[in-house]
Amino acid sequence: MLLDSGRDCPRCEDRQVVRRAQCSAVAAAVKAAMPHASEAERRAEVDRQLHQRVTAQAWAREQEWEQVRSRKPTAAHARAEVAAAQVAAPAEPVAPVVVPAPRPATVTVLVVDDGDQEQQLVLEDLTREQVIDWRARAAHDPQVVFDHIDRYGETSARRLFTSKFADQVQRLAGLGHLGLGYTPWEPA
């Protein structure tokens, strides 16, 4: 029984099922081998064979555990030797790994010949990494959103940074601070 819940132990139930199956298999084998024997003789033979099987399984399990226990010190000793050899052997100089510096996001700009000569950011020409880079920079520094609006217009900023984020930046800027991670009021 499990002490915390009071239910039957699932491991014990499994063992009981295995033992019952083993007992019925031995009883069937004895009944087939001794068809003319009395019930008492068959029961004695079943008990004897079950005892032999359980004893053999216990010895096999004990030998297996003995082998595991004998391998533990050997394996620990081998690991210690390998560690000592690594410490004793001078390390070969390893060429340093050079990680390339992150490329600045290249922005494709299209000049429109409208009356205002406003430049637009063509989002379809940006790679996924470039869009992620723009959004990450805006999350760390909201001024990126304002600079983008000044350069490419509010429509481009709403498409690149999402309208919700652009609205939040503009609303909080109107309050005189840009603490985007914390708002002291609950939404209406």
Tally the helices: 6
Mean pLDDT: 77
* Category by helix and strand content: mainly alpha
- Share of residues in strands: under 5%
Helical content, roughly? 55-70%
- Strand arrangement across the biggest beta sheet: 1-2
Domain unit count: 2
Instruction: Specify the overall morphology.
Output: elongated
Largest sheet: 2 strands, antiparallel
Low-pLDDT residue intervals, each spanning 5 or more residues: 107-118
Gist of the model:
By secondary structure, the chain is mainly alpha-helical. Helices cover 62% and strands 3% of the residues. It has 2 domains: 10-88; 109-174, no CATH class.
Describe this structure in words.
The protein has 188 residues and is mainly alpha-helical. The protein has two domains: 10-88; 109-174, no CATH class. Helices cover 62% and strands 3% of the residues. The chain has helices spanning 10-33, 39-88, 128-140, 143-152, 154-161, 163-174, and strands at residues 109-111, 119-121. A two-stranded antiparallel sheet has the order 1-2. Strand 1 and strand 2 form a beta hairpin.
Which helices and strands occur, and which strands form pairs?
Blueprint: H1 10-33, H2 39-88, E1 109-111, E2 119-121, H3 128-140, H4 143-152, H5 154-161, H6 163-174
Antiparallel strand pairs: 1-2
Helix pairs in contact: 1-2, 4-5, 5-6
